[in-house]
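Hey, sorry to bother you again with one of my protein questions. A protein chain has come my way and I'm curious about its shape. I'm sending you its amino acid sequence along with the backbone structure tokens. I owe you a coffee for this, so here goes:
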Amino acid sequence: MLYNMIIARREVLVQLDVGLVAELDALASRLATNRSELLRRGARAVLAAARESDADRAMVDAYRRVPQDPAVVESVRRLGAKASPDW
């Protein structure tokens, strides 16, 4: 992480219910961090998941526009059948 670097930050007001705040505080205490850091980690995780989902969707859309050559698919299927162990 970038612990020794100065990072520009903006304060953002977020309303959370009391139970969620209590859970965040308990987890922050267990992880020896603070609520803000947990929320930053959560935001990063949500953004990373959205980027991954967007990339997956783009790949599926690309294959729908230009489907893979059936001969290549069949060749790979046959190679996989020969290379896989006989369990």
